Amino acid sequence: MKLEQSDPIVSITGDLAHETIADFADDTLLCHAGRHSDSHHGTVNTPVYHASTILFPTLASLDAKGTAAVRYGRRGTPTSFSLEEAVSALEVAEGTILAPSGAMAISTTLLAFATPGAHYLIPDNVYGPCRNCCEAIVKKLGVAVTYYDPLIGAGIAELITTETTLIWIEAPGSQTFEMSDIGALAAVAKARGLVTVLDNTWAGGYFFKPLSLGIDISLQAGTKYLSGHSDVMLGTISCAPSVYARMKEFSARLGMCVGPDDAYLVLRGMRTLSVRMRQHHASSLKLAEWLQSRPEVIKVMHPGLPGSDGYEVWSRYFSGASGLFGFIIKPVERPRLARMMDGLRLFGMGASWGGYESLLIPTNPASLRTATSWEPQGQTMRIHVGLECVDDLIADLDAGFARMALNG
């Protein structure tokens, strides 16, 4: 995948020094962005800097600390700067702010634009912590919130008032996988001068570049694909020039920072993001096709699956699909579902996703909706296809369906 931005310069070592981002595909960029070996005694990876206090050798340097790149641990260290640089390169962003979790990245962004009397438009299929922040915090600050149908497209113009300041997008939705027309939403927002935010966690910043489409902020739970190993919590807020200074100042006022070990783990995970995402793409599509053929399955919700709901819109904006999607099975009693789930050998049951391991859980999206209804006529399931052999995963599910069919 080729990026279109010509700046900033990526500082890297070896034959690629002094080249610009636009000269390289993402696969190459992910191996080199954020690396400054010449500043760290030749080490390939930026070391982990554990730091709070930063010492200055002279009074003059102390007086000028406001211009120093490293001046206090909370303000960042070479470890966090390397991760910010790498994510910004991937997301084609002016700059990236790191948060301790994806949920914190969401709440920080919502709060940065929260002023009394403002009005936010939020998709009805949005990630639960985003809705919770709107309901429990944002509304108490005097911000009105309207939840919209994620399939509304350009029709969102009818919901905009003179007080509207922000449009949130999650594409696809992480529970029901509707594919919003991102371009149409962005065009309406640009015409009205509204800030747009897109949760880009599903694509990992690899299969989709929101800022290149005119979105102002692309945020991710780095916990998921950027890390890829289910062992760290982190969020990223990648910004266009129009909002970067505001977001950077606001997050600094909150005192938001991430631990150096967490930053290092996510940066290390990013080095293999391209090969992991391609494997998630191939395996998820093969497994989705298999599920589509099963008699137990009413519907597969995978926007990258040809012929599925949202495929035409998805193919307009995305270059690939991740490992997360959903499906609906025919109504089943809980004990039968437990027989299927409890005997799975390769699929774990857990709330997260984006790691190397496969996951499967039943969900109830209807409980998170207010503007639209969710009536699946069966049990909704969310699956994350990891990096195992997909034939082994299919065999595991096949055996699970057989257990579910047993009497008694």
The gross shape turns out to be globular
Helix content: 25-40%
Output the helix-strand order: HHHEHEHEEHEEEHHHEHEHEEH
Q: What percent strand?
A: 5-15%
DSSP, total strands? 11
What value does the Rg take, in angstroms? 22 Å
Counting copies of identical and different chains, the oligomeric state is single chain
**How is the biggest beta sheet arranged?**
7 strands, mixed
Q: How would you write the strand order of the largest sheet?
A: 1-7-6-5-4-2-3
Distance between the termini: 52 Å
What structural class do the secondary elements suggest? alpha/beta
What does this structure look like?
The chain has 408 residues and is of the alpha/beta class. The chain has helices at 26-32, 59-63, 78-91, 102-112, 128-138, 182-192, 241-254, 260-270, 273-292, 311-317, 334-342, 390-405, and strands at residues 95-99, 119-123, 144-148, 164-170, 195-199, 217-221, 235-239, 297-301, 324-329, 359-363, 379-384. It is built from 12 helices and 11 strands. Strands 1-7-6-5-4-2-3 form a 7-stranded mixed sheet, with helices on both faces. It starts with 25 loop residues before the first helix and ends with a helix.
Keywords:
408 residues; alpha/beta; 33% helix
